[in-house]
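Example (one chain per record):
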Amino acid sequence: METLLAERYTAPWLVQHPFSAEDQAAMSAMRAIVEPNKGKLEGVAARAPFDAIMERVADPAGVVYQAGSVGGVSGWWCRAEDARPDQAVMHIHGGWFNWGSAQAFRHLAGHIAAQTRTAVFVPDYRLAPEYPFPAAADDIRACYIGLTERGFSRIAITGDSAGGTLALGLLAHLAASSDGTSKALVGGVALSPVTDLSLSGESWSTRAVADPYFTKVQATELVRSYLHGHDPADPLASPLNAKLEGLAPIRVHVGDDEVLLDDSVRFVEHAIAAGVDARLNVWEGMVHGFLGGVGRLTASNEALQLISEFLNNRFAV
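Predicted structure:
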């Protein structure tokens, strides 16, 4: 294992999950399909094929879907049939700030709804390049406030990829806020977040071959489209640089074969140093977005279980 991560991987806040034999076969088959298109999803033309990928996530039983709006932001409700009336989850979808939609991510969010007996709202935040930074972050904040105004007294924030970035950014904003808006917040979960928009993590090199989806050239252009000249070091854009004291309890999940691995490792290190209740789960052999394999991959099922247990515990506090 690389010197960069060897010491970090012995940290008490990090849990490593082994690669099961069943998942090894499934991931090998998946790689054969996706690797020929590595780095080729670019610009707004990639929105349709990206959404098509997310639409393949298995639809969980016992969840009702409905288009809606919260805080002036449209999106989709994913409600468990036995949802508790006082608690909600806001799930922020991925797509490198340029792609993705609430409708395409509704099944993924539906699994969280089913496992936590909640109403999950997935906002259709504004996308780059039409709406660059900070439009997406503004929408996420408005949506959170909208949930509190609807009477939800216990709210969790989850997000994957770019959605994880926005989730962590919102958590940092609420930790620094003195207006009482964080009173309903119980915690957050980030799945493979992009915490450093300067793309300086070593795993951009050490996982460049292992990652079947992304290249640094591709990511650089997507980030450029989103920032539109804004400084990537700005803590509002890169949560890695934010002040994290007082951050709500968080859990981060990432695949070991991701170029974004170091973004998760460094962020949780930063959070632990700030006294935050934070844990990192690293899944051997898994790639970006592996939670979408729920129902098919052992790692996906186990990760969903851990996420749900954490959220249920936070709701119960």
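Caption: The chain has a mean pLDDT of 96.
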